[in-house]
């Protein structure tokens, strides 16, 4: 399945960029990076970076929500 993973991963990332449209969602970006990370180191690094940034955003949002 090595030949199928890159096109599927790239398609998921590109469709994730249009996450504001119905049916498509921003959830497709990390999923596409996870699929690409199986074969490519740069995608794994991007996925780790995105996961860390999401953790920071989520922590700030939870702190703001608990404060109000």
How is the main sheet built?
none
Residue-averaged pLDDT, rounded? 91
- Computed CA radius of gyration, to the nearest angstrom: 14 Å
Helix tally equals 3
Count of DSSP E strands? 0
Shape from CA axes? flat
Q: How large a portion of the residues is in β-strands, by DSSP E?
A: under 5%
- SSE order: HHH
Structural class: mainly alpha
Q: What percentage of residues falls in helices of 4 or more residues?
A: over 70%
Rounded to the nearest angstrom, the distance between the terminal CA atoms is 49 Å
Catalogue the unreliable spans: none
Account of the protein in words:
- This protein is mainly alpha-helical and 68 residues long.
- It has helices at 5-16, 28-37, 41-67.
- The N and C termini lie far apart (49 Å).
- The model has no long low-confidence stretch (mean pLDDT 91).
Topology summary:
Blueprint: H1 5-16, H2 28-37, H3 41-67
Helix pairs in contact: 1-2, 2-3
What's the quick description here?
The chain is mainly α and 68 residues long. The chain is 72% helix and 0% strand. Helix 1 (5-16) runs antiparallel to helix 2.
Q: What attributes does this structure have?
A:
68 residues; mainly alpha; 3 helices; flat
